[in-house]
Write a structure and sequence with these properties.
The chain is mostly helical. It contains 14 helices and no strands. It has one domain. The chain is 75% helix and 0% strand. The chain is globular and about 55 Å long. The termini are far apart.
């Protein structure tokens, strides 16, 4: 049995790995895309919907990694993030309890009834995913791909507070939501390629383990998505065009990270794959700059 000091899953993360280790990358992605989708829809979101979404996504990722760390023996852990959650299990459980309490309190006090109902439905879907993919169907080759499930859940979260009280706005944001869902799937699919041996070592089934041509498909997907987003940008309206351009840039960045993954290493590529989805930050900064100058939004 390998010693814990030499095991790749143990050790202190480098500074650039902390957002992934602490599960902060996914909340950052959904919050920046929530802003962009709300901007396209013309919906003004307050602090509560943003906090509830960010906290809920963090709790979902933390629960997934907490369960994974709980199931595995220390010698089986092959990633820093799962190692951290295993070693800090009860500290994270306490932190999660505080975040959950604040999340529920904010939702109950500040969200509209339609938002609450939609949120409960989405919570049920998240719990069903965790129960299925972490416990009941963990090794099943016939379960829905976890990469597709995560993409759909994240997209639903981004759309939740924009469309729950304004469902008539769906046609206006449908293209942007579709591109975001495709980006999330491409991100997860590439990670399944890079971490195939990790998933096997953890006893987890990934897209690459379920479908014979999944690796080739996953590596071509970002480039095809970038082309689709570029074509969408040519025909999109003024408000929707930034989302298409952001998706195009993210697709190109994901494809580039994949090309360089062999030189970067799995862990660096894993971090950069999430950074690649933060391209709406450029649109947010441009919007803020125009607002400061007093120009049109």
């Amino acid at each position: 049995m390998a010693s814990s000091a030499g095991h790749p899953g143990w050790g202190r993360p480098r500074w650039w790995q902390w957002p992934t280790v602490l599960s902060l990358d996914a909340p950052a992605v959904v919050l920046i895309w929530q802003w962009l989708i709300a901007h396209i829809a013309g919906v003004a979101l307050g602090a509560a919907p943003r906090f509830v979404l960010g906290a809920s996504v963090w709790l979902s990722y933390a629960a997934d990694r907490w369960i994974e760390g709980w199931r595995l023996a220390p010698a089986q852990v092959l990633t820093l993030r799962h190692s951290f959650y295993q070693r800090r299990r009860w500290s994270i459980a306490g932190c999660g309890a505080v975040v959950l309490a604040a999340d529920l309190a904010a939702a109950e006090r500040y969200l509209a009834p339609a938002d609450l109902i939609a949120g409960i439905v989405l919570l049920g879907a998240v719990l069903a995913y965790l129960l299925s993919h972490q416990l009941i169907h963990r090794r099943s080759l016939w379960r829905p791909p976890k990469e597709a499930c995560v993409a759909l859940l994240l997209t639903s979260g981004v759309a939740l507070f924009v469309l729950s009280t304004h469902p008539d706005l769906l046609p206006r944001v449908a293209a942007a939501l579709g591109l975001f869902a495709a980006l999330c799937f491409a991100n997860c699919a590439l990670i399944s390629v890079w971490e195939h041996e990790v998933d096997r070592g953890h006893g987890q089934v990934s897209l690459v383990g379920q479908f014979r041509r999944a690796a080739a498909f996953s590596r071509a997907l970002p480039w095809a998505l970038a082309a689709l987003a570029a074509a969408t940008a040519c025909f999109a309206g003024r408000l929707s065009r930034p989302a298409a351009l952001c998706a195009c840039a993210s697709g190109l960045l994901l494809g580039t990270v994949d090309r360089w993954e062999g030189r970067l290493g799995r862990q660096a590529a894993r971090v950069l794959a999430d950074v690649a989805l933060l391209t709406p930050a450029a649109a947010l900064l441009l919007h803020a700059a125009r607002h400061v100058r007093g120009g049109p939004p």
